[in-house]
Design a protein that fits this description.
Strand order of the largest sheet: 2-1-3-4-5
Strand content: 15-25%
Helix content: 40-55%
Number of helices: 7
Shape: globular
CATH superfamily: Flavodoxin domain
CATH architecture: 3-Layer(aba) Sandwich
Radius of gyration: 18 Å
Distance between the termini: 19 Å
Number of strands: 5
Structural class: alpha/beta
Number of domains: 1
């Protein structure tokens, strides 16, 4: 039974381009798979603390040595990694903040990148055989070949860090130009419609 893990990080709710395109991705993916399982992970609704000293102690010591404080600190990391490991395909819907990713998505990544769990002490990725689709909504346009392409640190970072833990089969949907909605130059449904074919292609890839 194939499993899709859908990770959402935008705070915009119903006004979010990345959320709406990710929802379309989920619908299209379900249409392609029978007996499917979809696991939703909304980072805006997840209590996601930043990595602290008890977390670090938990990540670098055997489980049998963990104090109650350490067990509590590392529990969310264990849960998130279990979700990731159980998935066949992961879709990450995110916005671009200052050319990179939102803090909540970075916090998620810090919880799932763990030595001996998702990568080995010799830096081999341990999360194998999975697909990743990234849907990135941005106010500006950062398509390949554009003068601003190099400003898109978000995609290069996400590819690097997921590749580091072993996920190298990656497809990207760049949903640029969302600032046109705020300027009144287009509507949310019109902008969404522009990227629906790219989302459908990402499902098929």
């Amino acid at each position: 039974m194939p499993t899709l893990l859908a990770i959402q990080s935008s705070p915009r709710g119903d006004y979010s381009v990345s959320r709406k395109l990710t929802a379309q991705f989920i619908d299209d993916w379900k249409a392609q798979h029978s007996g499917e399982t979809v696991v939703m992970r909304d980072l805006m609704k997840t209590e996601l603390p930043f990595v602290d000293l008890p977390w670090i102690m938990g990540a670098f010591t055997p489980a049998e040595q963990h104090s109650p404080e350490i067990k509590k600190a590392i529990a969310i990391s264990n849960d998130l990694i279990a979700e990731l490991m159980a998935a066949d395909h992961i879709v990450v819907g995110t916005s671009m903040y200052n050319y990179s990713i939102p803090a909540v998505l970075k916090a998620y990544i810090d919880h799932i990148v763990r030595v001996g769990v998702t990568f080995s002490p010799s830096y081999e990725g341990l999360v194998k055989g999975k697909k990743l689709s990234i849907i990135l909504a941005s106010g500006g346009v950062y398509t390949p070949g554009a003068p601003t392409e190099g400003y898109n640190v978000a995609i290069s970072y996400l590819k690097l860090i997921f590749g580091f833990i072993g996920i190298t089969d990656v497809n990207v949907v760049l949903a640029g130009g969302t600032s046109a909605i705020d300027k009144g130059e287009t509507t949310l449904p019109q902008l969404i419609g522009q990227f629906e074919p790219a989302v459908a292609d990402a499902v098929q890839a």
